Amino acid sequence: MSEWKKKRFWGDASVTRGEDGFSVALDGRAIRTPGKSPLTVPTAALAQGIANEWQAQVDVIVPETMPLTRAANSAIDKVVPQRSAIVDMLVEYGDTDLLCYRADGPDSLVQEQAQNWEPHLEWAEQHLRAPLLRIVGLVPHPQPVTSLSVLREATEALDPFTLTAFHDFVTLPGSLVLGFALLEGRIDPDEAVRLSELDALWQERFWGADDEAVENRARKATALGHAYHFLKLTRERTV
């Protein structure tokens, strides 16, 4: 049997403004999230982006082509009610941050990690006031409690829509520091992927690329790009 798919039932997707923000209406009827909450977003730009996704659907709804809609749904249905747990989970990445764990050899890899990762850890220390230890090897070592507290405070300050994008900024590269670097515009998604895949890319220069690894890297880049675009529209406020 073929899988049932929801068909397009509307003619026009439009943006409406209310007291709490902006919504998308299908033939005048406001969209709701899968959790049955009003899909209300903070900016007209984000609402228009969501409306464009709905308008672009043809015969059946294809959720994979609607990253803004899915992210907004997550912000409302998941991030808002689970905010504390999400903050806890993201801060844990700081305690085992990818950039802090260094190889003990070969020398060329050690140097490459230092050249590429050290500037971002120095930035975190100076800009975020969160110095982190560098650890050689893979055995976990606790990071300074004061630094983790600073990173927690910065994470807790994010609104639900920004926190939704930030979740992907952190979990996809595996680094809280890279997450903040993306959030602050210090790096773009492609650079975040390169930095997070530094060890694998170094190995590929000697042993060649693995097709599955290349595909996974491309998926990571696409997902980070979607989150980055979502954040941009979330911040794009009109006067």
Summary of the model, kept short:
This protein has 239 residues and is of the alpha+beta class. It has helices at residues 44-56, 67-79, 83-95, 107-127, 145-156, 160-171, 176-183, 189-196, 198-207, 211-235; strands spanning 13-18, 21-26, 29-30, 40-41, 101-102, 135-136. Helix 2 (67-79) packs across helix 6 (160-171), helix 6 packs antiparallel against helix 10 (211-235) and helix 8 runs antiparallel to helix 10 (211-235).
How would you explain this protein's 3D organization?
- It is globular and about 60 Å long.
- α3 runs parallel beside α6, α6 crosses α7 and α8 runs antiparallel to α10.
- The protein folds into 2 domains: 61 residues, ATP12-like, CATH 3.30.2180; 153 residues, ATP12-like fold (Orthogonal Bundle), CATH 1.10.3580.
- The chain is an alpha+beta fold.
- The strands form 2 sheets. Strands 1, 2, 3 and 4 form a 4-stranded antiparallel β-sheet that branches. It has a two-stranded parallel sheet with strand order 5-6.
- Belongs to the ATP12 family.
- One of its GO terms (biological process) is proton-transporting ATP synthase complex assembly.
- Pfam families: ATP12 (PF07542).
